[in-house]
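WARN  no MSA supplied for this record, continuing single-sequence
INFO  ligand: adenosine-5'-diphosphate
INFO  echoing inputs
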Amino acid sequence: MTTPSSSSAAQPPICSTMMQMPLSLNHLLERAGTLFASNEIVSRLPDKSLVRHSYGAFYQRTRQLAQALQNLGLQKGERVATLCWNHHAHLECYFGIPAAGGVMHTLNLRLSPEEIAWIANDAQDKVLIIDDVLLPLYQQFAHLYHFEKVIVFPFSGAAVPAPFTDYEQLLASTDTQGFQYAPHAEDDAVSMCYTSGTTGRPKGVVYSHRSTILHTLVGCLGDFWGLKGSDVILPVTPMFHANSWGIPYGAVMMGVKLVFPGPHLHPEDLLDLMTAEPPTLSLGVPTIWMGLIQAFEAAQTTQPGRWKLPAGMRSLVGGAAVPEALIRAFDRHGIWILQGWGMTETSPLCTVSYPKSELKDAPMDERYRRAAMAGVPVPLTELRIRGEDGLDAPWDGQHVGEIQVRGPFITGSYHQVPVSEDKFSADGWLRTGDVASVDALGFVRITDRTKDLIKSGGEWISSVDLENALMAHLDVAEAAVIAIPDPKWSERPLACIVLKPGRAQGQAPRPEDFAAHLLQHGFAKWQVPDRYEFIDAVPRTSTGKFYKLKLRERFPA
Ligand code: ADP
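INFO  complex generated
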């Protein structure tokens, strides 16, 4: 406000009185050690037994790891790779490596030995921390890339073979008296993760203290993970897949009990674990939950009472489109699926389909329909839909275009890759390669990945919509739809169908049955596939998603 007396003398600009403290993962670690020492971290070992640690032990061991890495001469910003399943020692790496000043680089154990070596070389990893049960995999790429030090976590309990360093002995022999966190700024790197490379060479995304803390705070909000101290989290999402979607950081921040599944990810194993240690929140890709619900429902007749599904559990499912049929199936057991959309590049949480206040009185059908959408952008994320004309598409639920995003936990470049216009817009937004519309309530509906869209007679057909509808058919366990070349229409959809167990191919629905089903679901005649192939299983990517590239190779025409 200008008053006659103040207008004459210029005032110095007002400054914030807040302290200048960098956002830091070390704060979360200290907090867990101080406030949650008796809370539990449970891990499933290779022999399927459970081992229990306290957050107090986690705090002590993580600082020992950090001190040990400093003693080994790790320099600030140097990369320490992990090749591990989900367990307590991997969690120690999440905090111990950055505490030492290093950058944790999670290697994906489902990649080929050559790909792992390529990625380790691209990241110039110095040290490798690896589960003993994964040493056979290491032996296959050891000649392709040399780590200065290999530390082996004796996950199976067996003695660590020479010449490797035993993780447990290293920790036990390290004194943390006088331990100092490596000095850091909030933009310093803490972890890195490579995109899976389904769309070209894998590329490194590097996260900072700041981006990780902001992502964690947003994730913890009530409509997303909604973390409470009394929660029990089952992270099925691998810790090498976009940092297990960030949940390890949230769990440590709130001291939440964690139940790590170790290497046991088969539906039966997960059902055993959920029955023994019922979670209130779980995270994983749709294919995991599809297998789990089939196994559970089949056992209800053959072995009633063997397993209990934890009614009331929230389940964050993402990484690929979540079929409405899956959401309905879990809801019948009192489990609500929250769909999330994101990428390695986006930390990854970018949109979540939660029941917005406008939906409070909406009929259940409308709630299911919304839950099957990718959802609403989370705070700190800006999202736009760029049409083929290069303009922003209106949020009317009709116009489609590429999703572009920006924000403080969205990558602005890739590790050692020049910024190019096919990955980032001229004004600096991340081009996701996903095609979607957004409606008036802000719900994003993914139509496809750019490369998976089907263009028939000049019109786009969404493979995701067809898959969702086909997976609602009573006889269908899984469906993946791909484009095949067509001389007249340029491309036509081909549906690959996995029948539910017990449905023999002889009695399988005929193409005309599927067509009638799809027409009933509102598809136009020209959108309905002309061809259906029955397959035993849909091939999976290294992160458990449908691998359509493999189907395109198998059905080239
Ligand atoms: P990759 O790109 O190698 O699959 P990411 O895990 O980073 O590795 O995958 C990100 C991609 O996964 C997104 O660009 C999108 O295509 C897909 N995706 C993630 N979540 C969803 C979702 N809820 N619905 C549809 N697709 C999704």
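The chain has a mean pLDDT of 94.
INFO  checksum written, moving to next record
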